[in-house]
Amino acid sequence: MLSFLLTLANEEERELVRGLYNNHHDAMLRVAYSKLKGRPNARYEAEEAVQNAFVKIIRYLDSVDFGRGANQVRSYLLTISAHEAVRLTEKENLFSDMLSEEEEPVSEEDFLDSLCLQEDYARAVSAISSLDDRYSMPLELKYVWDKSAEEIGNLLEIPVSTVYTLLRRGKKLLTEKLQKERGRP
Fold first, then answer.
1. Using CA atoms, how far apart are residues 96 and 109, in angstroms rounded to an integer?
2. Among the four residues 61, 74, 77, 112, which has the most C-beta atoms within 10 Å?
3. Same domain for 64 and 127?
4. pLDDT grade for 78, boundaries at 50, 70 and 90
């Protein structure tokens, strides 16, 4: 934590981050751990996710409105923690099927088709992750983790109607981003 604080420009920012850490670290850790539960190193990975969340918070400190209210700030911090925990598992999940030794050998054509699908999936997940957190988290929960709108609302502590709105807007942004990457208008 000390190394993070040293990157901040002034004492006011350091106090803000120190306060966020002291007030929300435990809850952020619980959220990250709940996303990683069942994994062999879940506790260590949860700590890593919270550390990554604080790096992100510090990076975007100027763009966050911390005066919005304690519940909204808490929700924001917990969302970032959950998002970072999910990111830790992305690469492992993407290629675990390909690397499994228990699978039967596949033809070269089937292998290439599978690889292309996984690359497209990886590109889509990467594009989702690059969106603003308010859109990326609901999209990731819905399409990567197969959560329902009700489950997403409960996890993010937002109304289900807001989940649907965020998903709709996020899908539009994601489609535009992927089309732009492919060179389509």
1. 19
2. 77
3. no
4. confident
